[in-house]
Each structure stands twice: as C-alpha cells, then as structure tokens.
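Researcher: Let's run the pair from yesterday's discussion. Sequence first, then tokens, for each.
Model: Starting with the first of the pair.
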Amino acid sequence: MIQISVIIPVFNEQDSLPELHNWIGRVMDGHGYSYEIIFVNDGSNDGSWNEIQKLAGLNPNVKGVSFTRNYGKSAALDMGFSKAEGEVVITMDADLQDSPDEIPELYEMIVRDGYDVVSGWKKKRRDPITKTIPSRFFNGVTRLISGIKLHDFNCGLKAYKSKVVKNIHIYGEMHRYIPLIAKWNGFAKIGEKVVEHRPRKYGETKFGIERFLNGFLDLISVSFVNRYKRRPMHFFGTLGTVSFLAGFFITSWLIFQKIYGLYQGRVVREITAQPLFFLALVALIVGVQLFLTGFLAEMMTSNNSRKADYNIEEELNFKD
C-alpha cells in the first residue's frame, strides 16, 4: 500500500505547479516514502491542466483528474479522496502557501500517535486583515458548535487516516468543516499542528468575501445534515408534533370556552370570529405537513444511494 497520498486542488495555479511538485518529491524521496500526488484540476482556464499532464509524463507518482468546469474546492477534495490509495492522505493548496516540509510530521502524527485527523494551524498568517478577522469569527463559531478545539478549521494543510476520507462526503463549501464531519462520523481523535504559512508567490487569491457568507450557511447545513440525515423524522416529526398539539389544545380551549359560556347563558363570540382560532388552524395544518415531510424524508433516506456528482473530462495514471 502507498504510504502517503497528497491531494492538491488546482484552480488557475499554472506557475506554482512545477515548483510544488519538485518540492514534494524532494521531501518524499528524502524520507523514503512511497507516495502519489493527485492533482485535481477544478476547471482551470489557464495552462494548469497542461502542466499537470507534463508532470504526470515525467513522474509516474503524479496522477490527475480534470473537471469539465469549476465545481469548487470541496468537490475537488471529494474526488481526490475517492481516488486516494495512500495509508495517510495529506491535503494542501496549490499556491505554495502550504509547505511540503510539514508532511513528515503530519504523517507521523497519524501513524505514530494514532490521530484520525490532524489539522494545520496557520498561527502566523500571511493574509490581509480582511481575511484574518472573518476567519477568526468563523473558527470561533465552529469551535462552539462542534466542541472541537481547533484554532484554524480552514487551513488547507491537513492529514487523515485513509478510512476517514473513504467514509465522508463533502460538497458546497464544507471542506473547511471536514474535522466536524469526521467527528460526527465517529472519527473523534482530532489533533492540531502549527504549520508555516508562506506568502503567495504567484498569482492572486481565488477567494472573495462571498466565501464567508457561503461558509456560514454551509456550517448551518452541515450541522443539520450530520445530525438528522439518518433520522429526519426526529427533526420534522418533533416540530410537527409540537405544532399540531399546540393547534389542537388551542382549538379545544376555544371550543370549551364556547360551550361553557353557552351553558352559563352568556353571549359568547363565535369561534371562527376569533383570530386565535385561525392561528390554531394554521398550527394544525403546519404540524401535519411537517410530520408528513419527516415521513417522506425517512423513506427517501432509506432508499438513497450515493451517485456521481461531477463530470470528469480526463484522468491520468489511475488504475482501471
């Protein structure tokens, strides 16, 4: 079995790829590791894929997957996870801001110390304040929700046991929440390592301010999905039951007031003339709908199977 798989999502990083490839090769050869480098070309429109093809022709340890369009970093990582054959899987960015010199210690923390996931911590960041402040906010919120004491969930440099990446599925902007997803899938031994964060050498960052909004929405999504994807009736059924019972008891109280008032000989408003009756009616209807939603979701979950989500244009050096 290959010792290390290095997965590198690529989007318009043509200039950095040869240097990154050579650097990884020096580290691997210097420590005697068996390895593979999997470049996932995420719809680049520069010469990145041509560069990957050249590297694959020179080094049989280089493998490549090219998407037909840009699907995002999570899709690229998910594809890399499905292709990886290594005992330990390392992920890193293609922009040379992550140092391959960190790989040996990350590998040892997985193999020697028994961690399921080791996340890098860019303690000294080389990013502008417009990225660091929002990042700290999201890291704080994620720590609060997950209970995982990591400083930097968004660091691209991470290490995983093979069984971890083979048992999780990521999409959207969920790559920054992989430790959270891993924990909720039973891989709870999660560690952290301070890593070097290098200044960008080529090109410009590919991430804008919109990623923070998308990241926050995906945090809500991943929290909901991982808690209730196997038992949606627990969520929708609970809400539906509470709503239905609230409507039922309000309606029952209004009917009781009407009957008791008539029995006492008092003039009593019609039930349908009271706004509270219509609120109760809405609660009854919503309760039934939520309950049925949970029931249908349970049926869909029991019959759902994973399907291919990405269109691949070309692959390099993978076994059939």
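Model: Moving on to the second of the pair.
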Amino acid sequence: MIRWSSIFVGLGSLILPACADDRKDLVRVVCVGDSITYGDGVEEREKNSYPAVLQRLLGDHYRVRNFGDSGSALLAKSDKPYRKEGAYADALKFRPNVVVILLGTNDTKPWNWQHADDFAADYTELIRSFQKLSSQPQVFLCVPVPAYPGGAGIDDTRIRTGVKPKVEELGRELNLPVIDLYTTFSDKKELFSDTVHPNAEGAKLLAETVARAIRGDANPE
C-alpha cells in the first residue's frame, strides 16, 4: 500500500529549500572565488568551507552560496578565467544582494601574470557585471591570503606586491570596500592545509573577517 502522506512529506522537503531562497526578506550573498573559496584543503568542506561558516555567522536572515571554482583566475587571458566557468553564470542567476570576490591567487602563475596589465580592467568588468543586476548588490573586494610559498606556480611575492596593491587601488577608484586577507593571514602558516589553502580553522578566520565587513562591525581594511 502506498503511503501518500510520506510521499507528500518527501516532496515538501525537496520544495522547501528552493522556496526558502525566494523569501523577499533574505539578503543573498554570493562568494566568488577559486579553490580557496570552494574549500579545497578544508576538512568536511561542505560544512567547514568559509562560505558555509559565513552562513552560520550571519544567520537565517542571510542566504550564503559558494560559487568558488577551483583553479579559476580573474584575468580574461588566464588559463582558466572565472567568467567562463559555470559558477560565474550561477552566481549571477542567484540575484545577489552582496558579492564577495576572492580572486587573484591563480593569476600570479607566470603564464597568467604575463597579462597582469589587464588586471584592473578585467576586475572592473567582473564587478560591473554584478552591479548591473536588478538586485544592485554591494560588492566587497578581497586581497588574497598569502602563499607559504605557493605551489603550482603561485607566487607569494606577486600576491603581496602585485595583486594586493592592484585590488586596493581598484577599491579606492570604485569606492568599494576592500577586505585585506593577506594581512589577516600573515604569519599564520599553521592555518594552511598546504602552502596555499587555509584549513578548517583558517576558513573560520576567513569567514569571521568577511562577516565583520558585511555587518559593518569594523573597517574591513
């Protein structure tokens, strides 16, 4: 005998999460980034990645989504431009109210960094693509975390002397808040699962820093 009540309950459990994202009182937050945002190197990634922790910190009034794509870079001429990935298209479709961008680490690889002169222009295009949405989101720019030293061509010196000043200058030019994760994670090698990716404890610190910026608890710089 078919238990229709059980079927209806099961269907309801599938429908409710989608409906929950449609609540008009929700502040929708998208976390744009590479493997650091995705949660590579984080134990129990789905629970402990920085976007997952950020959701718990911000609470039920917010809906945080992880649109990190491992290996992605900001530069359009890089080996894996973020804007060509499905995560980017999905982030736009989510109609965010807040966008947190954490890109630039993979751009420091030598075959990508040869296009560094395009960094500001490419970053501006990414920002504008979100600002054009009807949801008119607040955009936060993140200076990437350090590398200790970097693997697979990632260069900490380029993060510190190249990406960091470029992101900070762009924040000033576009009047956007900048979250300096490089300084936050300086001298904290113990919070990394390898030379590049924060571990679960590091993801928690990252989420706490981003949460303070979103809530306006402190100057993100």
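Researcher: Give me one sentence on the second I can quote.
Model: The first helix runs from residue 4 to 21.
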